[in-house]
């Protein structure tokens, strides 16, 4: 018994020493922080239905952010899987896809991370950091960034739209953005109030970096993808 006690003390001291002098955030610590965020933000809506956030930003100190930069995409995928698995185990519900991104926070010291979360409705979740925005075109709407991961993305007021716009001047299925290796195009889907690109009303128009799309009272800015020469499209 004494031997087990001494070993327990040794493990506790070693763990405390490691935490006091650790020099970087470990992936397992980020996963634990995300699970805690789910538990802390869980909201019971009805019997058997508990809603939790689905969009997460992991804020890291500059040194930690730099070390993770080369494999953020892979880590983000693993963290999404960890969040989803925890939600299934706890019987939590999401209103949209789970997405994890990373952001540099200059006020954090090395070895410390901070998680910010949001509940985002729709099939296309907003980009929350560097990892999810690289290499794909996106749409900036009212301060939110939506990564266009599909070849066709529908914008509208209806819940079945990929990007849901809370605007009475927008039709349920107002317009769609089509992305291909040759560029991007906006197509109006027969909306009631029409669609404009850079101030000109259009039925269809090519989109370029910085193009301003107007739907109802909502303005969205298209940002073109920056792709390397060897990148391929799905």
Automatic annotation (TrEMBL):
Q: Name one Pfam family in it.
A: FhaA_N
Domain of life (superkingdom) = Bacteria
Task: Note the SUPFAM superfamilies from the entry.
Answer: SMAD/FHA domain
- SMART domains (UniProt xref): FHA (SM00240)
Any keyword Glycoprotein? no
Keyword Phosphoprotein assigned to the entry: answer is yes
Q: Which residues form a coiled coil?
A: none
Domain FHA span(s) in chain numbering: 153-202
Q: Which UniProt keywords apply?
A: Phosphoprotein
Q: Which InterPro entries does this one have? A: Cell_Proc_Reg/RNA_Proc, FHA_dom, FhaA_N, FhaA_N_sf, SMAD_FHA_dom_sf
The protein in question is named DUF3662 and FHA domain-containing protein
Cite the source lineage. Bacteria, Bacillati, Actinomycetota, Actinomycetes, Kineosporiales
């Amino acid at each position: 018994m004494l031997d087990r006690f001494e070993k327990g003390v040794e493990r506790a001291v070693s763990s405390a020493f490691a935490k006091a002098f650790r020099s970087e955030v470990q992936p397992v610590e980020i996963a634990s922080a995300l699970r805690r965020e789910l538990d802390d933000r869980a909201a019971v809506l009805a019997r058997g239905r508990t809603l939790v956030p689905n969009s997460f930003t992991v804020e890291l100190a500059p040194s930690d952010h730099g070390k993770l930069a080369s494999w953020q995409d892979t880590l983000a995928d693993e963290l999404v899987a960890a969040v989803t698995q925890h939600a299934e185990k706890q019987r939590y519900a999401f209103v949209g896809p789970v997405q994890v991104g990373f952001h540099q926070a200059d006020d954090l010291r090395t070895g410390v991370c901070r998680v910010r979360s949001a509940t985002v409705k729709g099939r296309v979740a907003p980009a929350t950091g560097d990892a999810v925005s690289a290499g794909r075109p996106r749409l900036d709407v009212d301060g939110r960034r939506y990564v266009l991961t599909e070849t066709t993305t529908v914008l509208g007021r209806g819940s079945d739209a990929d990007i849901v716009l809370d605007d009475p001047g927008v039709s349920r299925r107002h317009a769609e953005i089509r992305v291909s290796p040759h560029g991007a195009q906006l197509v109006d889907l027969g909306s009631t109030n029409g669609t404009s690109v850079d101030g000109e009303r259009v039925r269809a128009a090519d989109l370029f970096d910085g193009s301003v799309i107007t739907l109802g009272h909502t303005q969205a800015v298209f940002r073109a993808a920056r792709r390397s020469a060897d990148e391929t499209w799905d």
